Each structure stands twice: as C-alpha cells, then as structure tokens.
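Input record (one chain):
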Amino acid sequence: MPSRFAPASERLDELLVWLDDNRDRATVAYLDLRSALVKIFTWNHCSDAEGLTDEVFDRVARKLPGLKDNFNGDPKLYFYAVANNLIKEYRKAARVHVPLDGVQVVSDDAQLAEEESREMRSDCLERCLQQLTPEKRDLILSYYSREKREKIIHRAEMARQLGISGRTLRVKMLRIRATLEDCIERCLDQRQKSG
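The corresponding structure, as predicted from the sequence alone:
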C-alpha cells in the first residue's frame, strides 16, 4: 500500500521552503523554531519535549499541502498553535491515565504481534544503517548514543571535532535521519507486502 505522505526528506524540504524561500534562512528558522518548541514543551512539564516537537513537525508536514495555499501570516504561528494543541492533548492524557499495577491487560497474541512489529522495525533499522556510508552511520549512531546532560556535552564535542557549529551538526543529522526514515518506511512496506 503506498504511503499517503511524501518521504521524510521531501516533507522536510517542503517545510523549509514554507518557512523561507532562501534555504540558509529556512534552515536557521527551522532550528530556531525547533529549539523554541522544545523549550515550550519543557516549560509545560511534558516528559518528552523532543518527541513532542517531532510530532509538531510531522503534523504540520501532513497538513502542508493545504496550508501553503490557505494560511496567511508567519508560518511559525501555525507551529505554535499545533504545539499548544499537543500540550492540551498531553495534559488530558495525563489526567485520564490510571496505573494498572500488576494487571495483565494485553493478550498474549497482541503482545506477540507487538514484539514481532518491534523486531521487524529493528531489522529494518539495522538494514538501513548498513546502507549508509560508514561515516554517516558512525555519525548518526554517535549523535543518538547519549541521554540528558551527557547528550548535550557529547553533541557539542562532536561539532567541535567536525569543525562545524552545533546548528550545522543538527541539520546534518536531520538529513541523515530523514534518509534513514525513508529507508525504514520502504523496508516495512516491502515486509508487509511479502508477509
């Protein structure tokens, strides 16, 4: 079944063009917007600020074909509105979340299917990582190898070693990630068709 959405790299290019016609200014605007959204989610006590920021960009990318023609004004305002809606969804989900400690809710069949899906994704990720050049593979694995404070320090050190700015490193990683996401989507589609 063909994907309803353009591949991740095409969606990123369309988002950048919507933010600014000039590629360099669009990249700076994207990085500034990403940083601002992470801060907004953090200030609102959301546990996965970066994940929610990714979700904002994904949602806007899916709406982009209609937005380009119908939205007037600063595109950043649309991103902020989507972020605001996500914060409301996050808070609503947090209010209705009830821990079910010790209760077996998921059936064995559902658990097995979820495990198979996770295994399939992992296999596709491994296959797609192998398709990258060794340099890109090492960079992306190193970039996502740390968490919390260590992550910030490590990424700054990576940028210094490469002789580039932190922003340039983020854009470089974003492009590699988009390539990986495209590859994983194709891999999963092929496996679902053959399975």
